[in-house]
Design brief:
The protein has 24 helices and 28 strands. By secondary structure, the chain is an alpha/beta fold. It has three domains: 180 residues, Rossmann fold (3-Layer(aba) Sandwich), CATH 3.40.50; 265 residues, TIM Barrel; 266 residues, Rossmann fold. It is found in: Golgi apparatus membrane.
């Protein structure tokens, strides 16, 4: 089924583009669904990008409505882009011709045939058969429609701009067409920048056995490599990570090569890679500072121009998972601003790597080029030279350049010695990109590159920790003298003033507790300081029956929290308590008033919740704090994007107050604890407080369950109207996950029905 397309309460579209892996899925939609999708596209100017499935045995004739025929399972020779479609080409160079048979590794091709002028061919090809004369490039493996000409003699196109492609994006020209099509269909909103920042790090300079160290011929080849790449990437220099203690350890020929590298030091950039290539997951952490400092002393003695603001640690140890001691040392040095790693949030898949900023240090994602420490000849490279040539000319490496605006590649000294594979690979791929695309490759200072990355991806500044026990690479990088951390299995996510304290208190009767550490905190005392220090907040489990949990009233509505929780605690059970949002807002006001908050003393509840754009900023901020948490549909949708509904337990806040024993018994089933306790025997109603309390320890403090005047009629009227559409969205969302409506939502719905 097609998901909700419009945010009703805001009347704004959810999606900038509709994409299909197979165009026939779109054509085969239920009539009602297709009509709904088409109307959405027309109303909001949203385009459709679609590939095709050429496994079909029969042609598809769409002439009745679309004036188009698709022929499947075709083998093609050559491809030329249509230079006349000037409004679409951006990355592509349409004057280039691919002269070979089009690849059919994944599937054969679909071509499009039409006489409808509403279609524009994007590429031409020809059947792959033997010709007595040069073949004509007449078949159409891709095309687009124009909404400017929606009517034709055949009944017309539907007024929706589409880009249709006759194969999957594995073939590099199809990828380029798709990227340009995506940019065009979204009017640039989903377009990547045209610049590609290229940085090639060379780890382990002066490290390794004699057979793979730098000889004079290798040193010369590296200098020449810089020169040749600069034809396509101005100012490019290989970026060498040096380990001073191992200089001249390789023997006569190697020593001459390494001396030559020092003589030619200005031909390269250099970064600190620790003095003895210390592996920090087994090296005493009190040696980190000395290893950094000694290496800089070596560089000064050898007149090496070090970019001291950038540092790579061997095996990326200490960067992620974070060792606080590493960042402590960088703080002491006072000049380290950037590093990079393969490991965040996970090493695989490579396109899933991200950056983050921790304690002022920018951590960039590193790319691999399939050259590892022992990859010193084509015999060792998987697939040999043929596989590398394919990677360079449209394959793996070409696609990284195509889709990655800021590239920081990891290579090793050994890749530039012996078979000189790294020189071959990077010279080849930069030439291929310059040949086939309009991309502008640049090589700024590494710190400028890091800043550019986080300008492009500001959402990545805040880190997302993950559990190292769940990934073998992260587990290896966790300090060997530390036990793997134990994290909570249950989170009570809020929101504020919905019976949180009561549920937390009653949970304490059964489970071990830990106070909130805050996934949305921006202080070093909270989530950001490090994974190890976050984990240290939780007590060791006493037995398998112990369930660790934490609660925070702020988790539910904070926009980043669900993603952070999912990364670290993907199996966690999430408990969300939803009370009547009008009651929740009023309760929050009374809470502030009871704590002598100056704003609540100065303004009435009605004045705060009705603050408009002309009100003082402090009043507008207070209005948001009162009303924002009660927009349940928006916040719940965010949790459902990160967790399956089976991991969320939605508590009816009214029921929690009136019948907490029943709710807590259900919560135990949801969490799966054993043995269970019967909360009907643990709680009793307190007539003075007006709610249930624990028999053994009595009621909550005087700040809980306080009495206050009934909400005024004007505020109730305003809030009823304010939450009306939001509550309708909540009903739709709950229906979509087949969850019953809470009692307060049903009551509000019933009260709105005319008698």
């Amino acid at each position: 089924n097609i998901p909700p397309l419009v945010i009703k309460s805001l009347n704004v579209p959810r999606y900038s583009l509709i994409a299909f892996a197979n165009y026939e899925v779109y054509l085969g939609l239920d009539k009602t669904q297709k009509s709904r999708l088409d109307e959405y596209c027309r109303t909001y100017g949203v385009g459709i990008l679609s590939f095709t499935d050429s496994s079909k045995t029969a042609d598809q004739d769409l002439s009745g409505d679309y004036g188009l025929k698709m022929q499947h399972r075709v083998k093609l020779l050559k491809m030329k882009l249509n230079a006349e479609v000037k409004d679409l080409w951006r990355i592509a160079k349409p004057d280039m011709v691919f002269e070979h048979a089009l690849p059919t590794d994944n599937s054969e091709w679909t071509i499009f045939m039409t006489e409808n002028p509403s279609y524009e061919p994007l590429a031409f090809s020809t059947y792959y058969i033997i010709y007595t004369s040069p073949p004509c490039l007449c078949s159409l493996p891709s095309l687009k429609t124009s909404p400017l000409a929606p009517y034709t003699s055949l009944g017309g196109i539907d007024g929706i701009q589409k880009v249709l492609l006759g194969n999957d994006p594995e073939f590099f020209l199809t990828s380029i067409i798709a990227m340009d099509g995506l940019a065009s269909l979204t009017h640039g909103r989903l377009a990547l920048p045209m610049e590609r920042i290229v940085q090639v790090d060379v780890d382990d300079m002066f490290v390794g056995v004699a057979a793979v160290r730098t000889k004079p011929k290798d040193a010369k080849a590296m200098v020449e490599c810089n020169r040749r790449i600069r034809q396509y990437v101005p100012n490019f220099k290989l970026f060498l990570g040096f380990t001073g203690a191992m200089f001249l350890w390789g023997g006569d020929d190697n020593d001459e090569g390494e001396r030559m590298m020092i003589e030619k030091a200005d031909e390269f950039m250099w970064f600190n890679h620790l003095y003895r290539h210390e592996l920090l997951y087994i090296t005493p952490l009190d040696r980190i500072g000395g290893a950094m400092t000694k290496n800089m002393v070596f560089a000064k003695e050898k007149h090496i121009p070090v970019v001291k603001e950038y540092m790579i640690l061997p095996h990326h140890a200490g960067v992620y998972p974070v060792y606080p001691e590493v960042f402590d040392e960088w703080d002491k040095l006072g000049y380290v601003q950037a590093t990079s790693t393969l490991e965040y949030p996970y090493r695989h898949p490579q396109w899933g790597r991200r950056g983050f900023v921790h304690r002022g240090v920018m951590v960039l994602p590193r790319q691999t080029c399939r050259l590892f420490t022992k990859t010193i000849s084509f015999d060792i490279y998987e697939g040999g030279q043929k596989a590398m040539d394919e990677s360079i000319n449209g394959g793996y490496m070409f696609k990284i350049f195509l889709t990655t605006p800021v590239m920081v590649f990891m290579t090793h000294m050994s890749n530039y010695a012996t078979g000189q594979l790294a020189q071959y690979e990077f010279e080849g791929v930069t030439k291929a990109i310059a040949t086939w695309t309009n991309l502008k490759m640049v090589a700024p200072h590494p710190i400028d590159a890091a800043r550019e990355y986080f300008q492009l991806y500001p959402d990545e500044v805040s880190p997302l920790w993950s559990d190292p026990a769940r990934d073998p690479n992260l587990k290896e990088l966790w300090r060997v003298n530390k036990t793997l951390p134990v994290f909570p299995k249950v989170l009570i996510a809020g929101p504020q003033k919905t019976g949180m304290a009561l549920s937390f208190y009653t949970l304490l009767l059964n489970f071990y507790r830990s106070e909130s550490v805050h996934f949305n905190s921006h202080t070093h005392n909270g989530f950001y300081i490090s994974l190890a220090r976050y984990a240290s907040r939780f007590p060791a489990k006493k037995n398998e029956q112990t369930v660790l949990f934490e609660k925070s009233a702020n988790y539910f509505s904070h926009h980043r929290t669900p993603q952070r929780v999912r990364e670290l605690l993907p199996d966690a059970k999430i408990i969300i308590i939803m009370n009547n949002p009008m009651r929740r807002a009023y309760s929050w006001y009374q809470h502030l008033k009871a704590h002598n908050d100056s704003l609540s003393q100065q303004f009435t509840f009605y004045q705060i919740i009705t603050a408009d754009d002309t009100a003082p900023e402090v009043l507008r901020v207070a209005q948001k704090r009162h009303l924002h948490d009660g927009i349940y549909a928006v916040h719940l949708a965010r949790w459902l994007l990160n967790f399956p509904s089976e991991q969320l337990y939605l508590v009816d806040g009214e029921k929690l107050i009136k019948d907490p024993a029943s709710v807590m018994n259900d919560v135990q089933k949801f969490i799966g604890v054993s043995p269970k306790i019967d909360y009907t025997t643990k709680l009793q109603f307190d007539a003075e407080k007006g709610f249930f309390c624990a028999k053994s320890t009595g009621c909550l403090g005087s700040g809980k369950g306080r009495s206050y005047d009934k909400m005024d009629a004007a505020s109730e009227t305003y809030l009823t109207e304010f939450y009306k559409n939001h509550n309708e969205d909540l009903k739709t969302l709950l229906n979509s996950i087949k969850h019953p409506h809470p009692s307060w939502l049903t009551a509000m719905q019933d009260s709105s029905v005319p008698s």
